[in-house]
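Hi P.,

Sorry for the delay on this. The queue was packed all week, but I finally got your sequence through. Input first:
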Amino acid sequence: MPRVTVIGTGYLGLTHAVAMADLGHEVRAIDIDEEKIAKAARGEVPFFEPGLEPLLRKNLDAGRLRFTMSFEEVGRFGEVHFLCVGTPEGEAGHADLSFVRAAADALAPQLTAQCLIVGKSTVPPGTARQVLGQLRAIAPAGQQVEVAWNPEFLREGHAVQDSLAPDRIVLGVTSDWAEALMRQVYAAQLAAGSPLLVTDLETAELVKVAANAFLATKISFINAMAEICEQAGADVMPLAEALGLDARIGRRFLSPGLGYGGGCLPKDVRGFRATAADLGVTSVVDLLGTVDAINVGRRDRVVTLARETIGGTLAGRRVAVLGIAFKPNSDDVRDSPSLEICDRLVAEGAVVSVHDPVAMPTAAAKRPGLVYAPSVFDAAQGADLVLHLTEWADYQAIDPAALAEVVAQPVIIDARCCLDAPLWTAAGWTMHVLGRP
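Then the structure:
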């Protein structure tokens, strides 16, 4: 098996390093953040991802996975180097490639023999060839250094399974040697039936952003239909079911609600839009601008509905918020619709009490001024309004009759359209569901 290194131990990098080790590879992972490396070496995962920490400890104990801060060590050790650094949203929506370039600069002087640098970070087309030129200009191995691009498709909350048994593997390569080497790296997944698509570099770079743009478009479309339903007196849920039965459309991700958030979809939609603008493709610019606007508009709708529901003003009103992570099974609050709504409620004078099964410590680091409650019932104590903003299974299991006993007014907005409305109304709640009569 080829020896593997992973550069960057954030969400993507740490998950990928653990998965590679669990598949039997000898892995060295590197980061410039000493605290990250120290935690990982102790078997600690600094974010919430089901199943990842025990797998990390298993592979540390087996000796297949080690962490370092030495680029000299990883350069000497690895045959395949995975670039897993962040590409955050930069100016005018463009992906910030400074971490990619810095990683390449740090690694290049250590590349003294034939090797393959494999990008997994989400980047605009043309980045891989730029990185290749950057590496070959510095690396002692010169033309023996090759670059491939292998986009990641991890879903937060399902990242371990997505790494060990991906639903597709996309490889952008420039030589038969690089393809053959990557087939060795992914031999276990390929043997288990994961589909493989081999492309040029530019196509591989586009796959991730195109996939996320399509997914975001599907989510925004059904949310636009929810707005139509509210105005027409229709019900978006059976509408979504009817659309989903069409084999050309499908039901997955055709779920109305508060919209998408997190560290990928919003960033990738805006980054892809910026790339399209650079390339002069106005149809994509217009389409993705509308998708983004619809998504942000769902947050506006919840704030407006909250204000209308409790008499036209939020000032001095107590609001309980259920869910602060951008999605369930995650502690990620990046571009969280819930967190933005909390900010706006507070700005209008509401007293906001928040509960989330795992994301409160992460949220508290970013918004220390919010009130974080240890339980749903603590959050709802004396509340004039309850907002259901993240679709944790915990919240679908709430006894609405018991919760009604602790609130000031039994009024709830289900912004995720997944609570049992008849059960809640039978318990005396006034219930508002986005897109439903």
